UniProtKB/TrEMBL annotation:
Lineage: Archaea, Nitrososphaerota, Nitrososphaeria, Nitrosopumilales, Nitrosopumilaceae
Aspartate/ornithine carbamoyltransferase Asp/Orn-binding domain boundaries: 151-299
Subcellular location: Cytoplasm
Catalytic class of the enzyme: transferase
Protein name listed in UniProt: Ornithine carbamoyltransferase
């Protein structure tokens, strides 16, 4: 399949049919991998720019390109001329002459906009302060694998209304999964993302985690201290009320699954008993970064 969009910066660039098809394609690629994938990206190169640390994003993109017969170049922004003042626009124009796609993990989402505006090749957001679209592709693949459907499900997001939460809202709008979000006051997700998505799906915003988690099929959280928002004083606004523990999980459906994009701060946003417990699917979720990004790369890189 080929996507209509040139870039994937938020998820909002996708049509609902494309989102669902990408998830189904990821499931096919995962099955095919057992006997080896076709070299769909032979002679294609991905540049990966990292302004911030990463384990999953870096390794899954690089492995994904390798498994599809292509190549990936890891570029720490500190080692690039960017760190000496070369503009992002000039960087984009230069990289476009060498590679077939650029994935970037940045602090400021505006930098991605500038990068993609000056790039003639597709640009993928590998996490910004505002969005993490690749994570949500993996999350919805995991939901499809575990629940077999999207329609009629309810996700509860509990904790910080952060970059991953913003992309989760778009994921729900694209798939038709209902979403209930519980955050402390002042930690809500982006208002314009909420407003835009409320046209397509039911989104409930509350400060009460017990209300949000009731009847949930999927329970999701993330760190209280993101890389771009690392003030440790934030933590006391969340604890103990917004911690996913056994007692809070008891309010969800009995067959609810627990997800976390990782890395997790154990016994802060989630207890070890939950993240290591029988309802947790976090390792499948992490693995699915590989399969969904392969589907994305194969669908966004032009022949
Ligand atoms: N979930 C995620 O993006 O992990 P990394 O920060 O390790 O890439
Ligand atoms: N919200 C976290 C996600 C890390 C994958 C962050 O931005 O650091």
């Amino acid at each position: 399949m080929k996507l209509k969009t040139k870039n994937l910066l938020t998820l909002a660039e996708l049509f609902p049919k494309e989102f669902v098809a990408l998830i189904d394609y990821s499931i096919i690629l995962k099955k095919e991998l057992k006997k080896g994938n076709k070299p769909l990206l032979k002679n294609k190169t991905l540049a990966m720019i990292f302004q911030k640390p990463s384990t999953r994003t870096r390794v899954s993109f690089e492995t994904g390109m390798f498994q599809l017969g292509g190549h990936a170049i890891n570029l720490s922004s500190q080692d690039m001329q960017l760190s000496r003042g070369e503009t992002i626009e000039d960087t984009a124009k230069t990289l476009s002459r060498y590679v077939d796609c650029i994935m970037a993990r940045v602090y400021d989402h505006n930098l991605l906009e500038k990068l993609s505006n000056s790039s003639s090749v597709p640009v993928i957001n590998g996490l910004s302060d505002s969005f993490h679209p690749c994570q949500i592709l993996a999350d919805f693949m995991t939901i499809k694998e575990k629940k077999g459907k999207f329609k009629g499900l309810k996700i509860a997001w509990i904790g910080d209304g952060n970059n991953v939460c913003n992309s989760m809202i778009y994921g729900c709008a694209l798939s038709g999964v209902n979403l209930s979000i519980a955050t402390p006051k002042g930690f809500e997700p982006d208002k314009s993302v909420l407003k835009e998505s409320a046209k397509s799906v039911e989104i409930d915003l509350t400060t009460d985690p017990i209300k949000a988690i009731k009847d949930a099929d999927v329970v999701v959280t993330d760190t209280y201290t993101s890389i771009h928002n690392n003030d440790q004083k934030r933590i006391k606004k969340f604890l103990p009320k917004y911690q996913i523990n056994d007692s809070l999980m008891n309010h969800a459906n009995s067959n609810a699954i627990f997800m976390h994009c990782l890395p997790a701060k154990r016994d802060y946003e989630v207890t070890s008993s939950v993240i290591d417990g029988p309802q947790s699917v976090v390792w499948d979720e992490a693995e699915n970064r590989l399969h969904t990004q392969k589907a994305l790369l194969a669908s966004i890189i032009r022949a």
